[in-house]
Design brief:
By secondary structure, this protein is mainly α. It has one domain. α3 crosses α4. The chain starts with a helix and ends with a helix.
């Protein structure tokens, strides 16, 4: 009987840990998406429609070049934001 209680307790805590990790992963994914959208809406959409930004699937190198060019044209984008946008935009599906 005691052995069965231990197994149930271990199973219970494994389920709890799985649910916590799943929640944390989904929260992180939402946060990354939200952050990408916020940067684009606040910094890129000042000059371009978001429809134009998301119109094409581009590689990381292509996004890096485009973002660097926009920065030369006056876009106020920090180094961390550039790296984040390159990752975010290159991972987006058309």
């Amino acid at each position: 009987m005691i052995h069965t209680k231990k197994i149930k307790a271990v199973f219970f805590w494994n389920v709890v840990m799985f649910l916590l990790l799943a929640f944390a992963a989904s929260f992180t994914a939402c946060t990354a998406t939200d952050r990408g959208s916020k940067i684009i809406n606040h910094k890129c959409a000042r000059c371009h429609s978001t429809k134009r930004i998301y119109a094409y699937k581009r590689s990381k190198a292509e996004w890096q070049d485009i973002i660097e060019r926009m920065k030369r044209h006056g876009a106020k984008i920090g180094k961390e934001e550039i790296g984040f946008l390159v990752e975010y935009l290159s991972a987006k599906k058309k």
